[in-house]
């Protein structure tokens, strides 16, 4: 892949790439770092994948997972994680959303963020995660139930 192909892929999918990383890291700056690290790593490779956008998405996801594993969870992080788009989520402060998202399993959190915020379909998420669409939709449903429960309890 050429640097121009990678640049074009980034320009076309930058919002989704960012949200892929944000769903894992729960931190804006760290998500941006993960995207950057993945792109730098891919530039150094001399590999031409069949599906460049899927390949780049997976590389960003892996970079975000690597960063998240190396980070201590008690480190301070930016509190403006997401702004709610759901009727319950939209009433919550970014700080409350961040705390609530931390209580979800990573699969649930990723699925919710990628679907609601990045606009990815369940099939696209399933392809990214190498899982079935039924598994992804179950993660989404369970995650939303947990998220609403946590937020409603904290909101009262």
Describe this structure as you would to a colleague.
With 156 residues, the protein is mainly α. 71% of the residues lie in helices and 0% in strands. It contains seven helices and no strands. Helix 1 crosses helix 3, helix 2 packs across helix 3 and helix 4 crosses helix 7. The longest helix has 23 residues. The relative contact order is 0.13. About 4% of the residues have low confidence.
Q: How are the elements arranged and paired?
A:
Elements: H1 3-25, H2 28-44, H3 52-70, H4 94-102, H5 106-117, H6 122-129, H7 133-155
Helix pairs in contact: 1-2, 1-3, 1-5, 2-3, 4-7, 5-7, 6-7
Provide a compact summary of the structure.
The chain has 156 residues and is mostly helical.
Strand content: under 5%
Helix content bin? over 70%
- Mean pLDDT, nearest integer? 83
Biggest β-sheet, characterized? none
Measure the end-to-end span: 53 Å
Cα shape: globular
Question: How many DSSP H or I helices?
Answer: 7
Helix/strand-derived category reads mainly alpha
**Number of strand elements:** 0
Task: Using the CA coordinates, give the radius of gyration.
Answer: 16 Å
């Amino acid at each position: 892949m050429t640097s121009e192909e990678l640049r074009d892929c980034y320009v076309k999918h930058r919002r989704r790439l960012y949200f892929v990383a944000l769903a894992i890291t729960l931190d804006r700056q760290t998500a941006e770092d993960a995207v950057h690290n993945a792109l730098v790593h891919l530039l150094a490779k001399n590999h031409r994948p069949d599906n460049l956008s899927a390949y780049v998405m997976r590389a960003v996801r892996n970079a975000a997972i690597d960063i998240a594993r190396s980070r201590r969870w008690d480190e301070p992080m930016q509190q403006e994680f997401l702004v709610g788009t759901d009727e319950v989520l939209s009433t919550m402060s970014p700080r409350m959303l961040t705390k609530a998202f931390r209580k979800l399993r990573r699969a649930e959190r990723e699925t919710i963020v990628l679907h609601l915020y990045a606009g990815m379909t369940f099939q696209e998420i399933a392809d990214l995660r190498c899982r079935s669409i039924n598994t992804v939709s179950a993660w989404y449903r369970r995650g939303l139930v947990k998220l609403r429960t946590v937020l409603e309890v904290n909101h009262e």
